[in-house]
Amino acid sequence: MLGPESRPTLDAPDDDPYLWLEDIEGALALEWVEAQNTATGKLFGQKQTAADRDLLKTIFDRPDNVPYPTRIGGRLFNLWQDAANPRGLWRTTTLESFRSEVPAWEVLLDLDALARQENEDWVLKGTSILPGTHDRAILSLSRGGADAVVLREFDIAERAFMPNGFYLPEGQSSTVWLDRDTLLLMSAVGPDMATASGYARTVRLWQRETDPLAALIIFETRPHSILVYAGVDRESPQELVWFVEKPGIIESNVWTGDRTGPKMRIEVPTDAWLSWQRDWLAVKPRTPWNIPDAAYGDKTHGTDTVIGISFSAFLAGDRRFTTLFEPASRRALQGFFWCGGRLVLSILDDLKPVFEVFTPADGAWSRELVAGLPDLGTVYVWPFDSEAEESNGDLLASAQDPLTPPSLFVVRPAAAPVLLKQAPRAFDPAGLVTTRHEAVSSDGTRIPYVQVGPPGMSGDAPVHLYGYGGFNVSLPPFYNAAIGKLWLELGGTSVIARLRGGREFGTEWYEAARREGRRLAHDDFAAVAADLVRRGVTHPGRIAAEGGSNGGLLIANMLTRYPDRFGALLCTVPVIDMRRYAKLLIGAACIDEYGDPDKPEDWQFLAPMSAYHVASPGKNYPPIMLVTSRRDDRVHPGHARKMAAKLQAMGYEAHFYEPATGGHSSGKDHDEQAALIALELAFLRRAIGW
After folding, report:
1. Of the residues 664, 665, 666, 670, which is catalytic?
2. Are 345 and 355 in contact (CB under 8 A)?
3. Is residue 680 part of a domain?
4. How far is C-alpha 293 from the geometric centre of its chain's CA atoms?
5. Within this chain, do residues 562 and 670 fall inside the same structural domain, yes or no?
6. Is the pTM of this model over 0.70?
7. CATH number where 311 lies
8. Looking at 142, 441, 494, 549, which residue is catalytic?
9. In this predicted model, what pLDDT tens digit does every residue of 527-557 receive, in sequence order?
10. What is the 3-state secondary structure (H, E, C) of 55-93?
11. Which of 250, 375, 454, 568 is the most buried (most CB within 10 A)?
């Protein structure tokens, strides 16, 4: 007698009976998807779910939500979505008006009207406004929220697309204005223009009223690199174009040149971060950088330090850097950028946000702190002005924590932050507290996590546990309106785990969970779940865990490696099939992160975390819901489809849902987002008996 279908297996990883589900628009696959959507909707789309959806949509559509602006040419631009404008209004105003309670916005483009007029499912993904005159823009229009976009030139003064303007069909594309009639084009559209990851392989010089597919190639990389991109330094006294080649997610090669192509490579280690402005260069080595110097003695700049030097002196051969930042135990750089001739460093000091500003002059660097921002919760700081040459040094800052909605500040040089906007409360925080704890992982490493909920230890708290753990991305505690309204306000507890693989404590923290170390990020998450039980907060059957994208790989591994620690699992837009991931959409770009399954030595450590192959009959797996999007062109929908099909064939409680649109997210607009989140939380609550 034959047992339940358990293919593919670790012993026969390429014997995959569900490959047909990788055909995204295939008739048979779509028939399966629609049947799954119907079944999931019947199970969890009850009246309460509809009420929850409506509640979330009202929160997302509130007119007093913060309209985050970008300043270009002295004016503020914003894309605004609400109930009347679900796709959004691209609009502009002045800073003076923005400060008022009801700003006077000028609508540049109504996306809903455009979608109706052209019968297209348009989503505005980005805008690139012509510097100087600010009267033209290249708009990036996505169908259904996908990463691929159509590029079209828009006349801002006339509020209309230009009939014979720049236009490029759908693809992974972006542009930079070189002058009024010339664009730098980075696009996968055209023969041999895409890398194996599906991104741009070339930089092309695209002249107005010419065929972009015949545009002159001025820079290119090998097909197996990830991508190339370019930009323009408009503060340089002569035309300066910079070019970046990304052989992998860690390494970069940077050149300077002009519209004819690169001329000079910036001689820093390929794994270093670098940025320059107004003849000053800042570098962050990822690994120790030894610089021989016969005259002054050799110098080694350590991992995650930030060093600065005159750019012209560096190009002339000078290597006498000034050390601006050195990491310490649990004090790590998160990023840096230039703004108005000042270098802004974003730092986490024992997970508290700190911002230091360095101003170079006459070979010296003065240092100051950005004071007046909260030192708890989450704070982001970024340049107010989109174009560096227009900046006066103003910064924007957003501050929030799990119980405090975001506030938007403007921070002028050497001045205290000034509040611009405050988001409304989405839920009642009464009786809720935020606490920080640490779990001990499999190798003894202490893993921090933030817990939000009622004080005290009931031993039975409904817990929503979220994590990511990868790609050098920190996961700070943030204000989550949906979890607040549909979990915390109902008496539940939420937890955010800060796993290895992120950037919280620097390169070492990230490297520990890269490639063969990825299992440690998964161990970290399981350790947090166990610690919640150890501390008396809850028990395993009441823990509902969620993760998306790389976090979906995390959740799939909780199913196969730690099923006894969870009551329910939500796995969204996930990476799961580690045997084929590098062959699907942009998967090849992630080989540096995960490893190469075509190499036997890499498959040896990838196989145990390929939950699609590890899953087998007769286990005590908790209920799981797998969610993807048909328009996700970043992580292939086949991962979630195939995992759901295999689990169901083996008799497990595995639910599946796939909206037709949304891209690599929870939806393209507030309607889709509210509906999907309400459905997902309905599943989690029911699965843990709440």
Report:
1. 664
2. yes
3. yes
4. 40
5. yes
6. yes
7. 2.130.10.120
8. 549
9. 999 999 999 999 999 999 999 999 999 999 9
10. HHHHHHCCCCCCCCCEEECCEEEEEECCCCCCCCEEEEE
11. 568
